[in-house]
Amino acid sequence: MGFKKIEAIIRTEKLDEVRMAVEGVGIVGMTVTEVKGRGSQKGILLEWRAGEYRVEFLPKLKLELVVHDVDLEKAVEALSAAARTGKVGDGKIFIYSMEDIVRVRTGERGRPAV
Length: 114
Hints:
CATH architecture: 2-Layer Sandwich
Distance between the termini: 12 Å
CATH class: Alpha Beta
Mean pLDDT: 90
Strand order of the largest sheet: 2-5-1-6
Low-confidence stretches: none
Number of strands: 6
Number of helices: 2
Radius of gyration: 17 Å
Strand content: 35-45%
Largest sheet: 4 strands, antiparallel
Structural class: alpha+beta
Shape: elongated
CATH topology: Alpha-Beta Plaits
């Protein structure tokens, strides 16, 4: 049995919804990192007393999850449904194949290490 790593870039305000949705399909482990980026949204234009200015890189969250191959589709479906607002800037999901996993504390490898 193989593993996949899911990296998802989402809106910061969607974290709790995404976490609950993914837990709802049985996946509890994830790493969350605060990031800034831009895609098709290309930043936003803001107004301030001195005039307008563009924020090129918007704050987002990057979630990283490792799942068994059999759990991949339900994890991606739960994550994308919970993260979706229907507006530009909802994010992206990237999926990578994993060679192996090692639990540092015990040295376990593969499925038991997840």
